[in-house]
Design goal:
By secondary structure, the chain is an alpha/beta fold. It folds into four domains: 8-50, no CATH class; 75-235, Substrate Binding Domain Of Dnak, Chain:A, Domain 2 (Up-down Bundle); 247-396, Rossmann fold; 405-628, Rossmann fold. It contains 27 helices and 16 strands. The protein is globular and about 65 Å long. The termini are far apart. The chain binds FE(4)-NI(1)-S(5) cluster and iron/sulfur cluster. Residues 52-55, 57-60, 69-71, 73, 78, 199 line the site of iron/sulfur cluster.
Length: 654
């Protein structure tokens, strides 16, 4: 065991995590928090991005005495190449997730989808219209087949730009075209980037960085967007739903099953299976009062958004959930599942089950997911977890009492509906509120947790400051879970914590000041919302002009790098809680943090402290407001929503 250098209170913000961290220390089990201690003084070359192991003349490290690698690559080339490879990893992860969903949609369309079906025909038909596919007079299956074919082509297209780009504002598309960063097929972008970073190919850091943005765009306006669209078609477009978050959602007398990872296919089936009498009876026979199905990371967000299934925790809580001693089974699939889990689970009775053939972990039981017999597969998994209930050791069980209520489920459709009401679902009231300065702007707070800093601290402190300053906050991923655990995702929070203008708007439409928009691939929903703001009018004609900023406070994954890049390429400034691994090249740093402003209208900013981030965000929003000419003093006459709708209707009729 490494020496405990930090107190549990300094490692996490929420009491449930703190309690469980103390338990882990008492039971002498390792978690990422303690392993972070043993990894202290992380490699400077890696941190600065100046270690190259792309060929076997190396590895080469850049120092003042050795400014070039064996092949002659300098720091700029090496840093940019490493950066592009990170973007590639992230874009590939999101997009492969999207591909799996498209393949499932295709199977469903062909009548080979087993227990899956098209749950949201409206979403299917509206997607068809977006992509100019004829939907009138055609069956769901016909449309779904053509749409899935089109989506598959988005992955394989060799020359043409992605069709999904056309969902963005027209001006955005021309910026991308002029800069030569309109991506062709997603798979091609990933392969081309791997080619270009091979030894002896692309060496100009500027060219490499532009390709980073192009690849990232194939994620945000490609793979991720497609993943969200298809998930909504297959599983339903989210609408506001109540639930609870934090380790306290685990049941003392129930069989606890956690779904962890990213892909929604299996968890959707588990959500169905868990309610069948066959399964509930089986649990009762085993002496449990029922079953608690809960989520970790983005799988949690997927089934939370659509079914209100509770969230046990975010990224840094995956191990802590096991440490409660109350988890019968944890299912893992792809992305963000720590390889430490089986070892840790061995100290308790938890069974870790991996379910997808592309993601195996030694020590986990591997039960390959049978998509064609999904419901039965799901039932068998749950029964297996129930069978494990008898192995729970009461002496090792300590479930923290804390969990907080929340509202999630804010798809763009749901937001439109809340804002515009029954008759005229529209973003107009939001645009008006921004123009009148009742809402200063919109900030997306997204991304992971990272044991380099105190769990949830930056995310929650920044969020609180922003809503107080009348900034509407949109959230996804583990950052959304951070706020949920703090009880900040309820409309009541608006009354207590939001500034006056934001509060009035939230009260009038009955929505929280912080909107949980889903998983990390659902960052595409944030782009979609921003695009709606542009389409609605009055706030500029591309995304770089609207008062909006993206923040990744506690990010850690390559996916986050890709997300950051597609936000910036979409003209949206991005604040990072930690810098990229680029410090070894001034040129690369300057390109990403400054030059991109001229190219796309947005750039990266590193703020390691939430107070500095807050100041920076307000400055950026004020600047955008000034450019739009809406920085004048707010109009004092406040209409209520009814009055304003009347006005809107009048304006509409003129
Ligand atoms: Ni995004 Fe979601 Fe969480 Fe980060 Fe991981 S679960 S995809 S990468 S850690 S937010
Ligand atoms: Fe070294 Fe160049 Fe090979 Fe990289 S590509 S390891 S810098 S010789």
């Amino acid at each position: 065991m490494p020496k405990e250098v930090k107190k549990a209170e300094d490692r996490a913000w929420d009491s449930a995590s703190i309690e469980t961290l103390i338990k882990a220390a008492q039971e002498n089990v390792d978690t990422c928090f303690t392993r972070m201690d043993t990894q202290q003084h992380q490699c400077k070359f890696g941190t600065n991005g100046i270690c190259c192991r792309i060929c076997h003349m190396g590895p080469c490290r850049i120092t003042s005495k050795a400014p070039r690698g064996v092949c002659g690559a300098d720091a700029d080339t090496i840093v940019a190449r490493n950066f592009l490879r990170e973007v590639v990893g992230g874009a590939a992860a999101h997009s492969d997730h999207g591909r799996h969903l498209v393949l499932l949609l295709k199977k469903v369309a062909e009548g080979k989808g087993g227990d899956y079906q098209i749950r949201d025909e409206k979403a299917l038909r509206s997607a068809a219209r977006m992509y100019k596919i004829e939907e009138n007079g055609r069956s769901r299956e016909e449309i779904a087949l053509e749409l899935s074919g089109l989506f598959l082509k988005e992955f394989t297209e060799q020359e043409e730009s992605l069709k999904t780009l056309s969902l963005s504002p027209v001006k955005q598309q021309s910026i991308w075209q002029n800069q030569g960063v309109s991506p062709a097929g997603i798979d091609r972008m990933v392969v081309e980037s791997m080619h270009r970073t091979h030894m002896g190919v692309d060496h100009d850091y500027r060219n490499l960085l532009l390709q980073s943005f192009r690849t990232a765009l194939s994620d945000g306006w490609g793979g991720s967007r497609i993943a969200t669209i298809v998930s909504d078609i297959l599983f339903g477009t989210p609408t506001p739903v109540r639930s609870n978050a934090n380790l306290g959602v685990l049941g003392k007398d129930t069989v606890n099953i956690l779904v962890h990872g990213h892909e929604p296919e299996l968890s959707e089936m588990l959500a169905v299976a868990v309610q069948t009498p066959e399964i509930t009876d089986y649990a009762k026979k085993a002496g449990a009062t029922g079953i608690t199905l809960a989520g970790i990371c983005c799988t949690a967000n997927e089934i939370l958004m659509r079914h209100g299934i509770p969230v046990a925790g975010n990224f840094l809580q995956q191990e802590l959930a096991v440490v409660t001693g109350a988890v019968e089974m944890m299912l893992i699939d792809v992305q963000c599942c720590m390889p430490s889990l089986p070892d840790l689970a061995a100290a308790y009775h938890t069974e870790i089950v991996s379910t997808t053939d592309i993601a195996k972990t030694r020590g986990a039981t591997h039960l390959s997911f049978d998509e064609e017999d999904a419901l039965n597969y799901a039932k068998n998994l749950i029964k297996r977890a129930i069978d494990n209930y008898k192995n729970r050791n009461p002496q090792k069980v300590a479930i923290p009492s804390t969990s907080k209520p929340m509202v999630a489920g804010f798809s763009v459709d749901a937001i439109k509906y809340m804002l515009g009401g029954n008759f005229r679902a529209s973003f107009r009231p939001l645009n008006d509120a921004i123009i009148q300065n009742r809402i200063k702007g919109v900030v997306g707070i997204v991304g992971c947790n990272n044991p380099k800093s105190k769990l949830d601290d930056y995310i929650n402190r920044l969020t609180q400051k922003l809503i107080k300053e009348n900034v509407l906050v949109l959230k996804t991923g583990c950052a959304a879970i951070a706020s949920a655990k703090e009880g900040m995702l309820t409309p009541e929070t608006a009354l207590e914590q939001a500034g006056k203008g934001l509060r009035e708007v939230c009260e009038a439409v009955g929505m929280p000041p912080i909107l949980h928009m889903g998983s990390c691939v659902d960052n595409s929903r944030i782009l979609e919302a921003a695009t709606e703001v542009v389409f609605e009018g009055g706030l500029g004609d591309d995304l770089s002009q609207i008062p909006a900023v993206g923040v990744a406070p506690e990010w850690m994954s390559e996916k986050a790098v890709s997300i950051g890049c597609y936000f910036v390429a979409s003209g949206i400034d991005v604040i990072l809680g930690y810098p990229f691994h680029i410090g070894g090249s001034e040129n690369v740093t300057q390109f990403l943090n400054e030059k991109t402003k001229d190219i796309f209208g947005g750039s990266f900013h590193v703020c390691e402290d939430p107070q500095l981030a807050y100041q920076k965000i307000i400055k950026l929003l004020d600047q955008k407001r000034k450019n739009l000419g809406i920085d004048k003093k707010a109009e004092r006459k406040l209409y209520d929503m009814k009055d304003r709708r009347k006005l809107d209707v009048k304006a509409h009729l003129q």
